[in-house]
Amino acid sequence: MKMSSSSIFLKLRRYNKKNYKQLLFCTFFSIFLVTSFVCVLYSPVVQAGFPEGGDSLKMIMMIFALAVLGCLIFNIYAAGLFFRTKSRETGVFLALGMSKKRLKKELYKELCLSLGKGIISGIVLGVVAAVGILWILLHTFLTDILERRMFSAAGLGISLFFAAVTVLILFFMAARYMRRTNLMDILNEEKKNEPLQLVKKGYGIAGGIFLVVGLLFGYAGPQLTANLLKFQMPAIWNAVYLVAAVGIYMLFVFFIVYHKRGKQPQKYYHNLISNSMMKFQGRQTVRNMCILAFLTGAALYAGSYIPDKLVMFRTMADTPVDFNLIYRQTEQEIQKEDIEVMADEYGVTITDYQEVLFAELQTSGVERDWTDDGKLIEDYYETYAYGEFISASVYEQYTGTKVEVEPGTFAQIILPEQTENFWEKYTDMDLVTNQETGAQLNLKFAKTVEDRMFYRANVHRYILNDSDFQTITAQMTEQRQMKQIFFDVEESENVYDFAIELRKEYVRRAGKDMAVLNAYNEAEEDRAEAAGEPYHYRMTEPMDPEDPYLYHDWKFNPEIQPIQMKTYLHESGIMILTFLYVSCICLAAIGIIAYTRSVTIGVQNQKMFDDLRKLGAKNTYIMRCIKNQLRKIFVLPTAIGLFLILSFLMIIYIGNDKRIQSTEWMSFGCTVGFAVIICIYQLIVYRMSLKKLREILKL
């Protein structure tokens, strides 16, 4: 029966359907993940839950870029395997006289069929998955979001763009694959080995040193030069992290290539064949291990944000008071009677109501900045900022804590476990000035006092000796007195509605002097005006109580726990789902790449294992050879990827404030737990790979 070339290619596709299914699945899976991810991320529903230009959204975008990179690597790896399996088929057709033009046309046709099916199904099912996720969000974390539109053109546009990039990359690989001219190279491509040169023990030691040096100095180097040499390292210094990447590659080469008889020669000879097999396939094995290590680290890094958010939520739940409002005494703001009337309307019971006054004084300080050539400049100002002061006796009256403050000294109120940072030191302040009377008082730093209730994030607060406080605040008017109101409420179903209405009323009554951003500094504004320079930290538009973005960057934003908890739950809930999704993307890619690489080992070495049987090797010995290779493929990338991220997190924790706080220990412990889950996942994939190899090799 006469057959056309098209029917031959059709039969070959059916015969090698496993290879086509693998490419189709990998394409579908990556498109599905990216589509569902971007449709959720760019949904107006989700975007409404984030402050415009906020750090949380930037963080998610960074993690999103990581996920897209992982999916691209995943597709490139799958395409590389597909072309390797096609090599013998292509070589035979060339040997039989078929033109490259004809083969290229058929290859492109096959790619179009596989990619087309994968892209269309991936986008459709990705959209369906996004709808399901958004429905869950709307009925859990985003119940109060007014926006109800689920999709935006940006989400589908990015999905289509990613699909287009995937198609271009795969067709570029196909074109490069077809440009080869050596027929024997094409025929033997599937069986091609890429051996590594032998290395000595020092190679592995050097790799370990490079890994540690790149990781440690990449992050700690700029901090050390800033603190010790008062010099800012240029952005190019981030290239030091590449030293760690080189170290990882060297370590993988070392573990694959270096084997010595040592004190246990029997073990060396038992593993001689399996070790030699890995050496002959060394380059492709090392490349795969590097990809697996990168994806493992990415999965853990994305997952590490989840415990951070959960620990922060737990800390927020432990706020010492439910409601905390502050404003200047001269403001026509909400008073105790107004709060009580409003509470009665909502059936809310107020408990532990207190009011305390702080004196607002000018403080000295040091302004630090970097010059264009990276040098640190420090300018001292007698009127650097405004601080809020309270006497030791009044502080004891409200908190029950006695603080001993000697005359001529001050204690600074901080958060628990807080330490000073590079830009502001506790000792910077040595002079306070009463702006109304011109009186000044020289002071020295004595101690810090940890107090979450009296701490204010955007203004420094201090405790003075009673006599010093009376001296410096003499003849002070209400214009420079700050009133802080704090109280608790009993549990009630109307507490949240009461909190929302109270905050709205608080905003309605706020005067123009309160319409300032978090970074507003009155003393800095005075200096800018004196220099004839513009100052940009005053709000230019009237404050709208209905505007959710107002409360993210308002200096006088009231701290109301019921609202903060729900708002944080909105944002962190979305972020937790997003980070978890990225981890799942990376873990899925890890599982498929590791599984495919494991199966490839069995297929490529099947003839060698058959020869070993003929030479008398038992199945137990062959299984030992296989397990020895699989352990390296699974254990080494997992161990190095997890070690890299856990070490990096520890360096960040220590670099933040020179110690690890209790909340950071909790978060780190949860991250270690997630690393254990990744190890269990890898063990499951290892077992599945081993089972598949048993079937292939009939063991």
Automatic annotation (TrEMBL):
InterPro entries per record: ABC-4_Integral_Memb_Prot
Organism: Faecalimonas umbilicata
Residues passing through the membrane, by range: 58-83, 111-138, 150-174, 202-220, 240-258, 286-306, 574-595, 633-654, 666-686
Keyword Chloroplast tagged: no
Native organism taxonomy: Bacteria, Bacillati, Bacillota, Clostridia, Lachnospirales
Gene Ontology cellular component terms for the protein in this record: plasma membrane
UniProt KW keywords: Membrane, Transmembrane, Transmembrane helix
Record protein name field: ABC transporter permease
Domain of life per record: Bacteria
